[in-house]
């Protein structure tokens, strides 16, 4: 027997809508047609002005990025951090990005090339294709008339020289410079600048002054010659490594003439330097400060400073402080700094956690390639990535990355053209046919840069 309430409801429904229910027949269709029922949505892009990177994975739209176009509107800072495991496309992204930026006439790029194979840096092929000779910093080559960079180059301000000397010493010693040693260095530097006027002062002059202090400094403090010599002893011993020790040859003379700072691409080849030696952060500090005073100019050019193995910079508190100032200063003059590292834990858990955090905050653009799940979660916490982005980072295929541009988060597939491919993939494992193709592409680019 039907429930009384059910009968009342059925009778009321029949009175309002009629006795027969409306039946909708099923529709057979394809997924391509049915997608119109649920229209796809995608976050807005970054505009269409700048360098094309590739394609957004979810929407299929082209992905265009240019920090100079976005700065001041969508970007508070033009600096960029690139993260990810080896073999997932970081190097290919860097190289194609630089090649595409150089198609604009007001762009200029400096690369610190810390990786290499077959005796040259991995940017060597691109440099040659553009008719540019990399600046190879190599202790052995420098002894035989190779390239030198002088920390006391007159183009660097006196305060810049002193700050650089302190950084070199602190990096080599692994600790901050004590006040007395700092005073001995400052007095020696002032004496050298005042007395060496007919040539470029060099590090050897600083060492001589530390070993034979200026009597004016002694009289001013009321201390003995032996005391001030003792204060500067450790400083002199550290600098002696750059003049007559294991680090000699690169910084112990006047800056090599003929370095073309007006070239569209400037490559410092550091591939002959042991990545794990103390020479690498010292070298990066000297190059960074030298560029700050000789390369960055108020001439309305947009400049890109790309540093591979950037953990050498960010993980040293003394070097990081120099680069932190460079980034703040360069931002006003159109400088975009690109730091490439494998893992964020390389820098945030190191001795320079405070300085690393400050530099990371300046990087408003973050590109993250595939990482293991634990590393992805740690990266997400530090960078404030949304949960969905953190979850897909371990699943990303090579060439696909999560892009976070000041909170605009997209998954982007990097696209490499056939002309770029032979210049970008420089692994030693390439086949002979691929190497021949690479050589042809290099020659074509040299003959016709617009190709």
TrEMBL record:
PANTHER family: SLR6007 PROTEIN, UNCHARACTERIZED PROTEIN YJGR-RELATED. It comes from Streptacidiphilus jiangxiensis. This is AAA-like domain-containing protein.
